[in-house]
Amino acid sequence: MAWIQINTAVEEALAEPLSDALMECEAASVTFEDAKDQPIFEPEIGTTPIWGLTKVIGLFDAEIDSKAVIDRLTQMIPQVKAEQYKVEQLEDKDWIRAWMDQFKPMQFGDRLWIVPSWCEPPQADAINLMLDPGMAFGTGTHPTTSLCLTWLDQNTPTNLQVIDYGCGSGVLALAAKQLGANNVKGTDIDPQAIIASKQNAERNHAEIDFALVKDFNSEPVDLIVANILAGPLKELSPEFDRLLKPGGTLVLSGLLSNQADELIKHYKTQGIDLHTLQTKEEWGLLAGTKNQ
User: Fold this and answer.
1) Residue 156: which residues within 8 A CB-CB, separation 6 or more?
2) What is the rounded radius of gyration, in angstroms, for the C-alpha atoms of the chain?
């Protein structure tokens, strides 16, 4: 099937309205790209920032009347003139297959694999997590997720009670459960993350309780794994202290390597000694224990 893209760059305030307008014009999908090579730095908890100047791209069947679509868009979003839209023909190929081909089974540590559902596990006797890329964060491709999965493989949580805080896709909770944890819970602020985590747990036949942060309850546990960002990790230190047993282990990732010292100092004031630093690219993982 042949496709075209209709795209333009708009200020941040227009990105979401234009996305909605494209979908009303029967776009098959809408994506955002950075239009000015502008990095997004660490957001506040609960926010989903986008770029100041954002390229908004609508994907359409090539048979559609692109002029009619643009005319309708100019009526719906009059701030964007017709001449600002660009129409591009895309190569005629199987886009679903091309997308699937980007993702291969990935190994973490000695025994742990993440395997897309359309692939055969490379090692049938390994611990294989069947996990497809989706809307929720965390399929092993990001260095911080990789660091956490490798840590779990090297520090088997056999018979431990575990919390995956900021669960995303639920991958760390799944890994902990399949590596022998006794009881595993996961939480996140994003409803999509909870939906994805529950679906992934069901796919892997794993009994894990997932709940939004506002609904999350737990007694103190043996191990907390949190792959978020340095700012939220710092803000959440009292909560992690409350949720962690004396002598329990805390694993933090999502931080940049140059943010590690500040977090180590901060957590020491909370009675938690983070003494292990592992790095991958510019990202880091901290692990340590709560004082008895």
Assistant:
1) 179, 180
2) 22
User: Cα–Cα distances in Å, from 264 out to 43, 77, 240, 268?
Assistant: 21, 49, 14, 6
**What type of residue is 286?**
L
Hey, what are 221's tokens? 């546990």
281/159 Cα distance (integer angstroms): 32
Distance (Å, rounded) from C-alpha 125 to C-alpha 121? 9
CB 113 within 8 A of CB 129: yes
Q: By three-state DSSP, how is residue 185 classified?
A: strand
| pLDDT average per 10 residues of sequence, the chain (292 residues) | 88 89 91 63 46 85 94 95 93 62 83 88 90 58 89 97 95 96 96 91 95 96 96 95 97 94 95 92 95 88
pLDDT at residue number 36: 59
Distance CA 267, CA 290 (A): 9
Q: Percentage helix, strand, coil, to 5, in the chain?
A: 35, 30, 35
- For residue 6 the two structure tokens come to 């209709």
3-state SS record for 51-110: CCEEEEEEEEECCCCHHHHHHHHHHHCCCCCHHHCEEEECCCCCHHHHHHCCCCCEEECC
Distances from the Cα of 289 to the Cα of 170, 187, 224, 239, 267, angstroms: 23, 21, 10, 15, 10
Whole-number Cα distances in Å, 45 to 24, 187, 259, 261, 277: 30, 14, 18, 22, 24
The per-residue pLDDT for 98 is 62
